[in-house]
Automatic annotation (TrEMBL):
<dbReference type="GO" id="GO:0019748">
    <property type="term" value="P:secondary metabolic process"/>
</dbReference>
<keyword id="KW-0378">Hydrolase</keyword>
<dbReference type="InterPro" id="IPR006680">
    <property type="entry name" value="Amidohydro-rel"/>
</dbReference>
<keyword id="KW-0456">Lyase</keyword>
<feature type="domain" description="Amidohydrolase-related">
    <location>
        <begin position="34"/>
        <end position="248"/>
    </location>
</feature>
<dbReference type="GO" id="GO:0016787">
    <property type="term" value="F:hydrolase activity"/>
</dbReference>
<dbReference type="Pfam" id="PF04909">
    <property type="entry name" value="Amidohydro_2"/>
</dbReference>
<dbReference type="InterPro" id="IPR032466">
    <property type="entry name" value="Metal_Hydrolase"/>
</dbReference>
<dbReference type="GO" id="GO:0016831">
    <property type="term" value="F:carboxy-lyase activity"/>
</dbReference>
<protein>
    <submittedName>
        <fullName>Predicted metal-dependent hydrolase of the TIM-barrel fold</fullName>
    </submittedName>
</protein>
<dbReference type="InterPro" id="IPR032465">
    <property type="entry name" value="ACMSD"/>
</dbReference>
<dbReference type="GO" id="GO:0005737">
    <property type="term" value="C:cytoplasm"/>
</dbReference>
Length: 251
């Protein structure tokens, strides 16, 4: 079974200096930590220029011999280009995209510019990842996870994965998942004792995706919280990579 990190990045980080920024750096970290594959986004797409960052990610993926899978970053407020960028990402083989409302200054529950992008993503059979925070740092912008209810309700055939949740938002995130079967959970920021067990018991292992936040976060906690959880081996395999493999295969 391949271990697949569902939350990884490459590129410059504007908040403070980090050691690992390049594509080669990320491959080095995957090798060092025993992670077989990673779903990545370019920080350039988040903070600077989405189209160029997405093209960088697509090139990285195509040259990685299957180690890296690119997800686009879409800013719906760029109304002239957002859907074209998403179409280009899909044509380049990307199975999903990420939204960062807290960085791009819009809301999920009342912004009309978002609906066209989400409708297109649903029609294309793509997955959308919505991190409520990029990494576990209290000083970074944060999204209210309850806003995802509106997206899940309006686009019931869209596969939605919540990322960046910690114990402070866990109850609300779990409520969103229990209300909407098309919502999953990425684990990189979760620190809760028995959090993985609770997710599996309340929502099902088939909706949980292992993430580390590489290279912006230390990867081992992301792995160990799954590897040491008191769950069945079948559930562990799904979370560590089986569920991600299914998404990446377009299933």
């Amino acid at each position: 079974m391949a271990i697949i990190d569902f939350s990884a990045y490459f590129g410059l980080w504007p908040y403070w200096k980090i050691k690992y920024t390049t594509q080669a750096d990320l491959i080095h970290l995957l090798n060092r930590e025993g992670i077989d594959q990673a779903v990545v986004a370019s920080t350039r797409s988040v903070f600077f220029e989405p189209r160029q960052g997405n093209e960088d990610a697509a090139s990285f993926a195509s040259a990685s011999n299957g180690r890296v899978h690119a997800f686009a970053v879409i800013n719906p407020c760029d109304e002239k280009n957002a859907c074209d960028i998403l179409k280009s990402a899909h044509e380049a083989g990307m199975r999903g995209f990420r939204l960062f409302p807290q960085h791009h200054r819009y809301h999920l529950d009342d912004d009309p510019c978002l609906n066209e992008v989400l409708a297109l993503g649903q029609d294309l059979g793509m997955t959308v990842v919505i991190p409520i925070r990029m990494i576990l740092h209290w000083g970074l912008p944060q999204l209210d996870v309850r806003e995802i209810n509106t997206v899940a309700q309006n686009f019931p055939k869209l596969n939605i994965i919540i990322g960046g949740v910690n114990y402070g938002e866990f109850r609300d995130a779990l409520a969103v998942m229990r209300r909407h079967e098309n919502v999953g959970f990425e684990t990189s920021c979760m620190q809760m004792v028995n959090g993985i067990e609770t997710l599996v018991n309340k929502a099902g292992a088939e909706r949980v995706y292992m993430g580390t936040g590489l290279p912006l976060m230390y990867p081992l906690p992301g792995l160990y919280k799954i590897q040491k959880a008191q769950i069945t081996e079948r559930d562990r395999e799904m979370i560590l990579g089986g569920n991600a493999a299914r998404v990446l295969a377009g299933e």
